Amino acid sequence: MDEDRQATFGSDGSLDTETPPEAREGTTDWGESKADGETDGGYNRYDVSSLLQKAVRRSDEEVAAWAAWELARSGYAWNLWDRLHLYVVEDLRAGQDVALLVERYETLATERWDPQSWKGRLCAIHAALSCARARSSREAANADEFFRNAAAARAEVRGTEADPAVDFPVSDLEPGGPYDVIFDKHTAEGSRRDRGEGFFKRFGARVGPDGEDEQSARWQRLNMAFSDVEYGEDELDHAVEPVEEGNRWEDPVAFDGEGTDEDANDANAGGS
């Protein structure tokens, strides 16, 4: 969603003139001419728009349904759908299928039917109810704000010996560090270290913590068997072993280029 679509009032308290033209067709429910930004029910559409997002965020189905209906019938369908699309990325736990439903309802309401019509209003209500029933979370917005704060903190101490007040979760990405496994054939550093297909299959392609299902693990073993790289049985087992839930980046075996796996307790300059 464009940043200017989130704006409401200017610094002087006037309506933001950069927003699309307001719908003033018709009158209010009591027959009076509608003012700029006014809904058919006599409400300020910015207030109703804010109410819609807060209602779906708090899982208040009835209020969300009404706010969507009020915006749709009043000629502010663009505001309704922009707000719902903002919700699915700002206030929704990742992975919720409702994000696809909102897109479908909007297509029906705005491309197949008139968004102010009965069918268009039903789509608005369906979309709002779907959002209100989904699992709300501010995780994406909270993550974005934290990462921006961490970036500023890192920049503030750049060139000094001080540590940043907060840091990125990965700190510095360096070979030999906690995330050493990322330096495989897909990176320049991994190529310089001669970490080719064998390294990637044994270490870089592991998943977790649930691990591969039986069929996927079977295919991985067969692919490795057909490879020009020779793998021992222990290496085949390790390639499909899930990473540890409590330590997803430290491999239980050490590694060094394309060589044979060593015991994790042995010295290994290239290990993690």
Automatic annotation (TrEMBL):
InterPro entries assigned to the protein according to its UniProt record, in alphabetical order: DNA_pol3_clamp-load_cplx_C
One BP annotation, GO: DNA replication
Region (Disordered): 1-42, 240-272
Start-end of Basic and acidic residues biased regions: 21-37, 240-251
One example GO MF annotation: DNA binding
Comp. bias regions, Polar residues: 8-17
Designated name of the protein: MgsA AAA+ ATPase C-terminal domain-containing protein
